[in-house]
Amino acid sequence: MATTAELFEEPFVADEYIERLVWRTPGGGSRGGPEAFDPKRLLEEFVNHIQELQIMDERIQRKVEKLEQQCQKEAKEFAKKVQELQKSNQIKEAADIIQKLHLIAQELPFDRFSEVKSKIASKYHDLECQLIQEFTSAQRRGEISRMREVAAVLLHFKGYSHCVDVYIKQCQEGAYLRNDIFEDAAVLCQRVNKQVGDIFSNPETVLAKLIQNVFEIKLQSFVKEQLEECRKSDAEQYLKNLYDLYTRTSSLSSKLMEFNLGTDKQTFLSKLIKSIFISYLENYIEVETGYLKSRSAMILQRYYDSKNHQKRSIGTGGIQDLKERIRQRTNLPLGPSIDTHGETFLSQEVVVNLLQETKQAFERCHRLSDPSDLPRNAFRIFTILVEFLCIEHIDYALETGLAGIPSSDSRNANLYFLDVVQQANTIFHLFDKQFNDHLMPLISSSPKLSECLQKKKEIIEQMEMKLDTGIDRTLNCMIGQMKHILAAEQKKTDFKPEDENNVLIQYTNACVKVCAYVRKQVEKIKNSMDGKNVDTVLMELGVRFHRLIYEHLQQYSYSCMGGMLAICDVAEYRKCAKDFKIPMVLHLFDTLHALCNLLVVAPDNLKQVCSGEQLANLDKNILHSFVQLRADYRSARLARHFS
Length: 643
Fold this sequence. Notes:
Blueprint: H1 2-6, H2 14-24, H3 39-105, H4 110-141, H5 144-154, H6 160-171, H7 181-195, H8 203-228, H9 235-256, H10 265-281, H11 284-306, H12 318-330, H13 348-368, H14 374-403, H15 417-443, H16 448-489, H17 509-528, H18 532-553, H19 560-578, H20 583-596, H21 606-610, H22 620-627, H23 636-642
């Protein structure tokens, strides 16, 4: 077939075409070529070639028919397009004419031209409806250019706003398919923002109207549905939903700030948010504080129920205040001691729960309060925290702990108040951290700051006063316990043995037990407190411990060997005092140890010892009081040397 096509030349001449065919056919030549003329072979070639030409003709014919059909189709489409363009222009022309007529008709007197004005108005309305319908159809087909043309024509008609409404309505069809309406709204606005400038001459106005429609209809309906069902029945869920919905609405507003919505988009979006939530925010703080109070009370009650404990009433008023002042000044226990069975009635779990509830309340307060109301609302939440954490829980535990401290003359007293001190210190740190982290940022630039700081100071001072009272009474109990040990274990014969040559002990049993008790209490104090408080309390205990031993030693008469044993005891007490790590306490026991040397030193050396470095600055009466404890004091020789 390709060979047949090669025989065609332009222009086509039949005789030349046959000549070329014969010439190329073997045996078809007549000029004595390499092969003789062969008519049969030439005939066969002609027949075959004719068949090829027929096949080629059919193919060409089919191609021609196909091209003709395509041409006719394109001609029809072109004609239709021309017709549509012409029609479109006639719309524009008609719109221009009816618009001008409508303006002219406004100036005509109604009594003379009522019929004309009515016809113009009817035509105006019909054409306006046709344009809006055309815009609607173009939007459904996705024909942006056609939408732009119709919108441009409608711009001068009263129904232009209706055209915008149609666009906004159809934009939202099928837009809310996810479970997240806020994400759907963001995607919708992003899509419209890319498109609206290609359709309308005032895209920022149209986009703003779409956003307003989304907020006032779709979002407002969704928010109402989510909040109304739990508003009266479940305050906790209501507050969580309100916070979540307001936060997500604000987040959506932040995303929309990147679009061109006109001059003051911040105010525009803020008003939209306010219009949705205003009915819920007006009484927000009342719901918040009411819920926080009931929730805090429930947390505390659940804890005391778990301890099978009925809270005792802490008395208030004149008599109770008088008792408190007497107790603080005299350290006397007023009323019977309460056995708490080692329970501090402080719970870190309760504290964490109360602080967590308050933290969430502060976060909601920050988000949902009007800026002008924020400091006042935050202060209300803080007062609830003070009421339930500081007063109802910590202060109650301190009062109960104080009532549980036994009198100083009790035997084998269990001193649990230091456990109260330890837990109270931990809770104070948590309370202070929340104050700084969550309350301060809400009130730092308002007059409420000083009010909150003052309230916190008063609470802490009140707590510290009770802690100091409890610690002081606990120290008295410790000293009382040491007195019981000394009274029970120390024998007069310890320091004046019957057989001076047969003393086998290094220090007395009373000393061993007292030192063991003191070391245990020192460790407990170190574990219960921190910072300078440890040193302060250990200093006080050390001074009282020294006074106790000093006065205790004054009760006995000492032989030479007994004096040596007393020195050994004081050496052990001094070793125990080193655990305090308080220089002043150690100095007191060093001095006491030096004083005990007066019990055993030879009479001739008394004056020399008294004038030594450790005793030189002491009052002579103190020195004399120790010398008087010697069993040989009344001998004329000793008295002469010390006088």
